[in-house]
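User: I'm writing a tutorial on reading structure tokens. Could you give me a worked example: one chain, its sequence, then its tokens, then a sentence or two explaining what the tokens reveal?
Assistant: Sure. Here is the example chain.
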Amino acid sequence: MKDLKVNNFVGQLYKTIVFLFLNFLLIVSVSAQDYKTIKAEKGEGVYSLLRRSGLAPEQYLKIFVELNKSKLGTDNSLYVGETYKLPLVELSDEPLSSMLTESPAKENSATPKANVSSGKTTAYRIFGEKYKNVTQIDSELSGVVYYLVSGHGGPDPGAVGKLGPNSLCEDEYAYDVTLRLARVLIEHGALVYMITRDENDGIRDMSILKPDSDETCYPSLKIPRSQVSRLKQRTNAVNKLYTTNKGKTQRMVIIHVDSRSKGENIDVFFYHDKRSKTGKKLAINLQQTFKEKYDLHQPNRGYHGTVSDRNLYVLKNSYPPAVFIELGNINHTRDQQRFMLENNRQALANWLAAGLITDFKNNK
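And here are its predicted structure tokens:
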């Protein structure tokens, strides 16, 4: 009996020593990791610094604070010129760290793939509280990948119209229509990437959309002030994703609002790259869908939206076939109603989605 107690004691002691040794190795391993560093710029907070580094604040904020707590001021403020450690990027089995947005239930998981059985409901935070739950209604777009780019954003509001004392900023209205389009495409089984992103706006139902400048470029990069740099940033984001999704049907949709004289009323019109036959077909399918919708819902109105090629950077340099869409004239009263009214913004999204479904069926 005495020998048995001694053996048990020795066994427990051995296990304890092994446990402590393994923990020591883990601590040494973690402490030996090389962290990338970055210097804080004037007027920058933790969120903007993480975005500038290409890290999603929602995912890496707590880790950043823990790494740098001795160098942070009140309310985790940064000191200009101070060097801060950046969190190590977590690897994932998913194609990338984030597709459209993360599910609230799993903060660090990628968006569930869209080619799932109909009837599944998934929550997407990027759509906002009211619209976050999306139920797939069919699989018409299963296997199709869309890159949605709303115009301008960040330091550039784009065209600015006026309605009384209110400013109507192109980037806000283009973004809301783009979000609505993304939601409809997911309902039909598509895989959607929002390239221009605003994590806290969501889909909004008010007529006057308050402007801000916190939009980012996928996955969460700070949007540069330079127009050329901004266009290159978005094109590079899409082209990297295109390579990842090689072998799938892929399309890029770019949504803007035009700016012309107050007296010029225009219909939704479409541009494509002159070298891309598929891009031209995409633009024509969308235009024809809009004509059919207007003929059905407003038979006496007429529709004069055009399709033409244009020498635009994103159209020329993107890998997937692309279409550039102008929703209307932000300075014309009637055109303003097209994207100011919530029901009209949803109709634009629905009609664009219908055109994309037609395009996919026509190109199968």
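What the tokens reveal: Residues 206 and 342 are 7 Å apart (CA to CA). Residues 2-31 form the longest helix (30 residues).
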